[in-house]
Amino acid sequence: MMNSDMDAVEAENQVELEEKTRLINQVLELQHTLEDLSARVDAVKEENLKLKSENQVLGQYIENLMSASSVFQTTDTKSKRKE
């Protein structure tokens, strides 16, 4: 092969190597992004469970307050008072 042919092959190899390096870096960046998103999803799931639990406790507390308060009693008790 001539010198110019060898230079062309080397240049082509260099272009391929640069493209492979670019693709590898892009894959690595996407992997890191996926890891970050996965960690975020886990954190949001955890927070969601915590908030659901807190909502249940608050709901029960409100029910207890309503059942203990005369304002929220049935109208039957009011009608009995009038008789």
From TrEMBL:
Protein location: Cytoplasm, Cytosol; Golgi apparatus membrane; Golgi apparatus, trans-Golgi network
Coiled-coil stretches noted in the UniProt entry, renumbered to this chain: 6-54
Alphabetical list of Pfam families matching this protein: DUF2205
GO cellular component: cytosol; Golgi membrane; trans-Golgi network
Keyword Nuclease annotated: no
Chief location category: cytoplasm
Top-level taxon: Eukaryota
Matches recorded under Gene3D superfamilies: 1.20.5.170
Alphabetical UniProt keywords: Coiled coil, Cytoplasm, Golgi apparatus, Membrane
Membrane topology qualifier: Peripheral membrane protein
InterPro entries, per the entry: SCOC
Function: Positive regulator of amino acid starvation-induced autophagy.
Family assignment from sequence similarity: Belongs to the SCOC family.
Protein name in UniProt: Short coiled-coil protein
Organism, as annotated: Calidris pygmaea
Organism classification: Eukaryota, Metazoa, Chordata, Craniata, Vertebrata
